[in-house]
Amino acid sequence: MQIDHLIEKHGAPLAGAGGASSGWFLSVFMQGRYHLYEGFKRNEYFSPANGFVYLDRTVFLWICIGTGIGLGLYHLLSKRGHKRTLLSWLGLPSLTLVVHPLICLAGAKATLFPVHHAIVALGITAALTALQLSKDTDEGHQLRRICFGVFVTIVVVHFFLLAWFNILQYRALNLGFPDSGRIAESLSQTLRGNFMLSYNQGYIYSDDPFQPRTSMEHLFLTQVLMVPLYWLFPHHETLLVLNAFMLSMAALPLFMLAREQSGSVVFSLLIGLAYLLYPPMLYVNFRSSYGPDNEAQGLFFVMWACYALATKRPRQCILWCILTVLVKENFAPMTIMFGLVMALQPSTRKIGIGLAAGSALYFIIGTKLLLPHLAEGGYDFVVGYYNHIGSNYSEIAWALISRPINTFNLLLNYRNIVFLLHLLCPLILLPLMRPVWLLLLGPSFVFLLLSSNPMHQSILFWNHTTLIPILFSGAVLGVQAIPPFLKLDGSHDGKKMYQGVGWGMLAACSLSSYLFFFRMMTPETFEVSKRDELVHDVRNLIPRDSSVLASYRLASHFTDYREINVMDRHPLKDQDYLVFDPFDRFTHYGMMLAARDAALRRPDYHLVFRKHKLYVFRRGIEFEKEPEALATEPLPITTPINETTDGAKLLGWSQLRPTGPRTIQVETFWECIRPMNKEYEVVLDFQLENGGHASARHLMADWLYPTTVWRTGDLVRDSAQVQFDHAQPKISGLTVRLVEWSE
Prior knowledge:
Radius of gyration: 31 Å
Largest sheet: 5 strands, mixed
Helix content: 40-55%
Shape: globular
């Protein structure tokens, strides 16, 4: 083609221009930032407050560096042979990045699209570079054994890392109760003779949160098969390890599929590594504090089903599809598509029709007959995800069919497009090369895109889990379509091409993982402190045959008790023990404060544990309560003040006392003029001698004698330890005030 000769003639200038545009893109867009699904509603790039700087000394330096890299790489690779056709395309992927700064320069708003574009550009550039460096030689048995051994070792290490970080997150009190807590609770209750019972499901189906129900709002039949494992290892951590194991081991069938389809063990190793770094897969494991769910098992089984289907093993495919629908009935539409794809082949037509019909029958019987008996309300709550379309299934279906333009707009809104790019860009769009294969995920993908729940279009959660195997297997098959698509001759249609594409996918997955996973993880998520030992002490304090009301993240540590209620859903109602963690800002804080107030007012609850902001109340006989925060006159006030807020009068504070190189103790004294029904926080504003200001705020009286329970005439001492970011500054003044607490 004429364009090939033109590009080959100007390959070196294109490479230099591509490097220059990469440098410009990087220097401009690194000035902004992005936040992944901020508040579950935004998935956006945020440009600098003062706008981009498009050209200055720093930007020009980046342009020069990029140009040098592009030209140097081109000339280095060109020496490896006389065939320059593909090498001449080296600068084109990066050259396309120049469009984004130009569009922003014209006044357009920056989005996440350029970030995804950069990922694809890097992947394609890495693939072209690796294609020139690779050798199209036969891979001997020794190399195949070495690569397989290396891959298995990496998979095992990957599993141990996932499991270890899961346990660290759990021990750091950063793992919420749902969904793994619900699973652990139902398994523990099953061992007690209460089949899949949960005390935290009633809120889904009725106004009575205390009505115990099964946790089978879906047909989680493989969850039943987990009971023997949980009997052997009756710990919440068992689920964390099992989830990591299933996710990591799903790389093995992908490796086998790539090896059989390509004949290249190096390509198989590279695509397997790309899977282990794939951000959507990693978020299935680190599900934004929700913990493991059964979908991880579905990913493992679907990956094996894809392997069996692509390698023409229909009976094995049926077996893996059966295991997939046992994980969750929602996977049945996907297995229906497996059956339809098999039905298109004359040799497997009958088997495919049987699989499709069986999957459809299981879905109908499961949702209409089985689920209503296992969980009242059954599958009806799913309709709520589509209430913006219709109020029932028939109305939703008719609205989608009768209003095609509206349906098109629902499917292709910005959030859905970005979600799709998160899935495809790390694979350098290779699954799109086999559109027939993508039909397998059609129904499941459409259900997610039409949902009004923003979590369904977010890789931070789990709903995309079973899409991952189809996307990766589609990428493996898509590589075979590259030579005819690019009109390459037979010399390039070999292991050399596979290795180049493998390196490109690994580069794109690595960059995507860095941008959208590792930068999102904070060290505090996995930082285990002394409070973990205190949870162990609390568990030893509370008998296993007790009912416990616990805050959101603490509740996941009490799933093996007779009854566990989560404060996000349950108020105080005669539970034997109450366990509070005021540091848990992911809980429904208002409900936790209401439970605390009730425990402080009721005479049958008594504080039995108080360390490092962990509080345990026990129910028993009536107790005389004398809060430690109550003070008696004379008060050691050195700075008298008389200011009234609502029913609280600030009497003053004592002398500030240093308690460390960066901390001081502040004691303030208050008088209750009249009872209040509001929760107030104490705000301390420090005026510094250098003219600066510092402030701190906390709930009154170490959280245990709040303004909501004050009685007329009370004299209250509030003591707070204030820690500064650096060495304790010189303080010239202090202002103390009350503000209403807000969640």
